[in-house]
Amino acid sequence: MSNDPSLSSGIRDEQTVTPEGKPVATTIDGVKVRSTPHHVDHRGTVFEMFEGVGDYWDEPVVYAYQFSVRPHQMKGWGLHERKADRYTIISGEVLLFLYDAREDSPTHGVSMKLVLSDRGVRQVTMPPYVWHLSVNVGSVDAHLVNFPTEVYHHESPDRLLLPWDSPDIPVDVSSHLPKF
């Protein structure tokens, strides 16, 4: 046993996953995440983004677009009133914050964060009325594809926006940002 003063100042780490690797954090009702089928051989890699409507893809693909987040930048907070966003990360690493603003949801007021990466969770579905904010925590552009459940209406976008540090969303984003 050591009497070093740093030991009394240390903060005990908290459990983040079960022994099976499942997160222990509360998740928002209706948010779905998954690691995609990923195939690797001597020629390179392939990962499946859409295998047809099924367990994960419970609504047809009707529209798709690619977007990026530059290193050390963020996009959000954003929310849709009608459509769900279905992100697939292609490259990079994004810290994604979510906040459930649905008053009739069993997880109303719950926030969650997850990392989207080619080494783990690669896809996430966010239902309507769930705020989301994407932070690129890497040193290269993060590239994502969105397969929203509704086409984009240029004349009347289905999107509400708030600043990243809005007091209306009780998430302290700054405490999670990397120190560059």
UniProtKB/TrEMBL annotation:
GO molecular function annotation: dTDP-4-dehydrorhamnose 3,5-epimerase activity
A Pfam family assignment: dTDP_sugar_isom
GO BP annotations listed: polysaccharide biosynthetic process
GO cellular component, one term: cytosol
Residues flagged as site, Participates in a stacking interaction with the thymidine ring of dTDP-4-oxo-6-deoxyglucose: Y152
Region (Disordered): 1-23
Domain of life, per lineage: Bacteria
InterPro entries (alphabetical): RmlC-like, RmlC-like_jellyroll, RmlC_Cupin_sf
Family named by the database record: Belongs to the dTDP-4-dehydrorhamnose 3,5-epimerase family.
The protein's name in its UniProt record: dTDP-4-dehydrorhamnose 3,5-epimerase
Species of origin: Microcella pacifica
